[in-house]
Write a structure and sequence with these properties.
Keywords: ATP-binding, Nucleotide-binding, Transport. The protein has nine helices and ten strands. The chain is an alpha/beta fold. The radius of gyration is 18 Å and the shape is globular. Bound molecules: adenosine-5'-triphosphate.
Length: 243
């Protein structure tokens, strides 16, 4: 049941200032093990900054970050990755000049060798809907396929927690839906997920809980049904063109 276990990720009173700009404002956030959680909010609300604080790309001005009950506030990104946090950024970080298969091989060879490596490449190609693209150069994939390859690379280390920054940006509705199914399948294997997302249809598809950020602070939290029924949330999106 959500809320009773030690959170996989927790922030306590997290603050970030950029000069005079208070970009993260006393954020108390918890992600329970096994949860799919979406972080939404208008442009400039501070979603990416909160993400970067969780990853160790920015250091907070105040507050604490915990992973599985242990403090990681001052840890560099590589140490957080070693604990089991993996990330997929908006801009694909794939090797465009290499074949799709080879991209996966590079990501997987830290963990697997020989027959096991080969079998896992095949399994991932199937899982990512990239089986027929296996021998194409990664740079020749469609935008959506590149995002899927990046998801495959992000999960190749078997993370406990997957952080996704707008995973469906620029995707067609079909690709977006397929991405949702992929994330749900990973979640069914035990991966906890936190996704920054603008596409509300996608949020509705995957999120078990939603946090709304506004001016760097937690503005609302709940199920997607509670969030879409909240007039205060609708009001902060007015004029921004979201559905
Ligand atoms: N490195 C930085 N230095 C100074 N200001 C920054 C920096 N990074 C972000 N900001 C500012 O912090 C605020 C929040 O930015 P952030 O990118 O976290 O918002 P966001 O919710 O992710 O927005 P979007 O939905 O547009 O991606 C913005 O006003 C932005 O200009």
């Amino acid at each position: 049941m959500l809320g009773l276990e030690t959170p996989i990720l927790e922030t306590q009173g997290l603050d970030k200032w950029f000069g005079g700009l208070h970009v993260t404002n006393q954020v108390n956030f918890r992600l329970d093990p096994g949860e799919i959680h979406c972080l939404i909010g208008p442009n400039g609300a501070g979603k990416s900054t909160l993400f970067k604080l969780m990853l160790g790309e920015h250091m907070p001005s105040a507050g604490r970050i915990m992973f599985e009950g242990e403090e990681i506030t001052a840890e560099p990104s590589f140490a957080r990755i070693r604990r089991g946090i993996s990330v997929k950024f908006q801009v694909p970080g794939i090797f465009k000049e290499l074949r799709v298969r080879h991209n996966l091989e590079i990501a997987l060879q830290k963990r697997l060798k020989g027959d096991e490596l080969d079998a896992e490449i095949e399994r991932l190609l199937e899982f990512l809907n990239l089986y027929e693209q296996a021998d194409k150069l990664a740079g020749a994939l469609s935008h959506g396929q590149k995002q899927w390859l990046e998801i495959g690379m992000a999960v190749s280390l078997r993370p406990k927690l997957l952080l996704l920054d707008e995973p469906t940006a620029g995707m067609t509705p079909d690709e977006t839906h397929a991405t949702g199914e992929m994330i749900q399948a990973l979640n069914a294997e035990g991966v906890s997920v936190l996704a920054v997302e603008h596409d509300m249809a996608f949020v509705r598809q995957i999120a078990q809980r939603v946090t709304v950020l506004h001016f760097g602070a937690v503005f609302a939290q709940g199920t997607i049904e509670e969030i879409v029924a909240d007039d205060r949330v609708a009001a902060i999106y007015l004029g921004q063109g979201y559905d």
